Amino acid sequence: MSTRLLTRTSRARLIASGHSRSLTMSISTSTSAAAAAAAAAQSPLKVGLRGGEILNNPRFNKGTAFTRRERDEFGLRGRLPYAVDTLDDQVKRAYEQYKARQTDIQKNSFLQSMKSQNWTLFYAVLRTHLIEMFPIIYTPTEAEAIADYSHLFRRSEGLYLSPPDVDQMEVDFLDACEGRELELIVVSDAEAILGIGDQGSGGIGISSAKAVIYSLVAGIDPAKALAVSLDVGTNNSDLLDDPLYIGYREKRLRGQKYDAFLEKFVGLVKKHQPKCLLHFEDFGVTNAQSLLARYRDQHSIFNDDIQGTGAVTLAALQAAIAVTKSKIVDQRIVIYGSGSAGLGIARQLRDAMVLESESSDKSLSEEEAASKFWLIDKYGLIKKSLGKDKIRDEIEESFIRDEKDWKDGEEETGLLEVVKKVKPTVLIGTSTHAGAFTEEVIKEMSKNVDRPIIFPLSNPTKLCEVDPKDANDWSDGKALIATGSPFPPVDIPGSDKKYVVAECNNALIYPGLGLGTILSSSSKMTDKMIVAGSKRLSELSSALNDPDQSLLPEFGDAPDVNFEVALAVIDQAIKEGVSREEGIPTDKEGRRKWAKGKVWRGSEYLEYQYDEAGIR
């Protein structure tokens, strides 16, 4: 190992410095006030940058909000206009500039530019306009930006790793996290990006966007987060034929070479950043499942496409069955669409059934719980007679239906036929097959259950399996509905009331799952930690008090909701003995105050003092 590598190895180990909306709003207000008071009470932060260096550093730059004293001390007096702005002034100015952009992609570009200039202002603008701007910084607009990444590229935004430089991967990794103890690494190989597929080196955009959401709604310090692109090639011919494509211009790495590349990367994370959360994002379905299975017991690992989608769906289902006064183990669940999302949901709900049954008179095995699921893909019901050529390897044996339930394997097993035979209590769509939940399907389901639970989760809106208005009408207003995209409230037949449609947005839970794992410094994220987070999210549902209200909290309350999820995760991590953090208070109220003090708010500018030996 080179002297340089040894030096960077040592440096890399150093540390750089109520359930109703009104109740949630009051929590948010008090939290912001507490953060501001805490910021005011802190001693000035010692920073070792001056002049253009501090203005060009997004972590420390305040722009026109630098005070008179700071301008003198940091050599900024002649570099800035005379007036001193407040953060609120800057937010108003930035929002005017944002609104002047004519298209969503231009707005996305504007926000990306702001992020590269001033983190505090960037996050303050997003928090002020969270619901409006979330579709711009994430799906669907971020997908458009990723698809055109090579043409929109201005500056790097993370760590790019490719096969030709595999021998230098450790050097490059340590360069990227020099002097930092990371809390979060978000990594993608870009094979399955946001419904638009293989995007090669553009995958850095989804890693970066996810890291932003962690900071925005869970309070992960962006200085302790790293976005990573594993640019292992692409099978996207449009990219390979594009003369401006800036990624690794080869076909996608597969097989043992791919596995070895991932093994080396994960090994570096475990070696040099042993306490960080490693978040896998938008890997292809086969690799996503195999990587999660391989590494989840070796490090703190999370896959949002599998576990996050499953967790938020579980939360919505827990709220729905609370309305129906039933139990999860009593459900009959049909899942239409068996890709990574559908399988992730099936596994999460199955695991929750097993865990819930442990406290009952009759515990269920995984196989017994799996027997309560019917999975459907393009070939119909997934059953043994389809043969191995039509059943993907990642589908577990216990989810494959036995032929004894169907006439010699020849009976039609499309969605309607399965609904007629199974009489499901829960129907979940992850197929991207628009309109698949037809009037006949919904009416057939509604004949056999008092409150059908219907979750058309496919994104975007145009690919949703059924419009909530139709599901509501066809079920005579009895359906309990959650969707993958936002929909307006729908009229309840025969009433002047409206039914509020829940949005199964992963951002309501995965940042909280991550925050709880990070704060507890857990050696791994266990199934019970995820279920505990889901249960806490379901407890925040307005539907528990009024069944016509949403099964999940509003997305605008995501910061406070995720904090509650994080607390539940911390409690469970301690209970299971996987927490490695010392000094966590033993009482719940003390733990809440402790956790609140650990969260990065970024809602106010800190006061700076120049010190040549300070943070750089």
UniProtKB/TrEMBL annotation:
(S)-malate binds at N459, N505. GO terms for molecular function: malate dehydrogenase (decarboxylating) (NAD+) activity; metal ion binding; NAD binding. The active site is at Y138 (proton donor), K210 (proton acceptor). Residues 306-574 form the Malic enzyme NAD-binding domain. GO terms for biological process: malate metabolic process. InterPro entries: Aminoacid_DH-like_N_sf (IPR046346), Malic_N_dom (IPR012301), Malic_N_dom_sf (IPR037062), Malic_NAD-bd (IPR012302), Malic_OxRdtase (IPR001891), NAD(P)-bd_dom_sf (IPR036291). Divalent metal cations. Prefers magnesium or manganese. A divalent metal cation binds at E281, D282, D305. Pfam families: malic (PF00390), Malic_M (PF03949). Keywords: Metal-binding, NAD. It comes from the Eukaryota. GO terms for cellular component: cytosol; mitochondrion. Gene3D superfamilies: Malic enzyme, N-terminal domain, NAD(P)-binding Rossmann-like Domain. Its cofactor is Mn(2+); Mg(2+). NCBIfam families: PRK13529.1. Belongs to the malic enzymes family. This is Malic enzyme. It comes from Kwoniella shandongensis.
